[in-house]
Amino acid sequence: MLPIRRLRELHRQHKRVPVSVKNYTKCHVRNEQICNKLTSCKSCSLHLNCQWDQRQQECQALPAHLCGEGWSHIGDACLRINSSRESYDNAKLYCYNLSGNLASLTTSKEVEFVLDEIQKYTLQKISPWVGLRKINISYWGWDDMSPFTNTTLQWLPGEPNDSGFCAYLERAEVAGLKANPCTAMADGLVCEKPVELADSCIVGVLGTLPVNHRFYCEIVRLVNLCN
To answer: Which residues form the C-type lectin domain (predicted)?
Structure first.
């Protein structure tokens, strides 16, 4: 992991090219209201759905279509749900072909969105794969290398079972996770990819895209971004 001092040096060497958002008109009203109230670059940069415009000296909402068609912009991630019946590896391949990965649902906002979307499948009940798998006998980890804390999402009673090495999301009386053999079939999958701004932020500052892009891009946003 790079020290904060080194990140500052890298940021000075590779200034991020500003991304103008003033021509976009499809921002969520809620984000516009929040962003317009932020009057400094640093307070604006702390909000994942806002961006500081240096020329206008104002905080603006990021456009909702940064993720592309078929994706939903949730926080600093783009999420996409598919109802196809797949094994875990085939689900990963599906997401990979869309420039994403199986979703690491590490924020309450992401979890709430996915659970709400699952409820909309009234004709077909889906229990989608997520990017959580068993690393060793007692440790489960997300695909983006984030630790699984069992707080944002929790195991259902009796889970994880001994035969399961990959996790899927079940919404019955209580929503939660179940473990399944990775070769088993699950009804649905959740893909995730970073928003375009996050990618350009990391590549512009670090020159490469690390595995845990969320952490690095958030550091870049907070460390000396407004100087």
So the answer is: 74-192
How many secondary structure helices (H) and strands (E) does the chain include?
A: 7, 10
- Please spell the DSSP secondary structure of 106-119, one letter per residue: -SHHHHHHHHHHHH
Residue 227 domain flag: no
132 forms beta bridges with 142
Is 173 inside a domain boundary? yes
Distance CA 161, CA 130 (A): 17
| Enclosing domain of residue 80 | 72-192
Higher pLDDT, 198 or 94: 94
Looking at beta carbons, which pairs linking 209-218 to residues 24 or more positions away fall under 8 Å?
Answer: 211/144, 211/145, 212/144, 212/145, 212/146, 213/144, 214/76, 214/77, 214/106, 214/144, 214/146, 217/76, 218/76
The answer to whether residues 28 and 64 touch, using CB atoms and an 8 Å cutoff, is yes
Q: Is the pLDDT of residue 207 over 60?
A: no
- 155 DSSP 8-state letter: B
Q: How many domains does the chain have?
A: 2
The pTM assigned to this predicted structure is: 0.62
For the stretch 34-77, pLDDT in tens is: 888 888 888 887 876 788 888 888 888 776 567 888 899 888 89
Q: Would 8 be classed as within a structural domain? A: yes
* Segment (H or E) for 129: strand 129-134
Residues 148 and 61 grouped into a single domain: no
* CATH code at position 100: 3.10.100.10
Residues 59, 64, 67: CA angle, nearest 5 degrees: 120
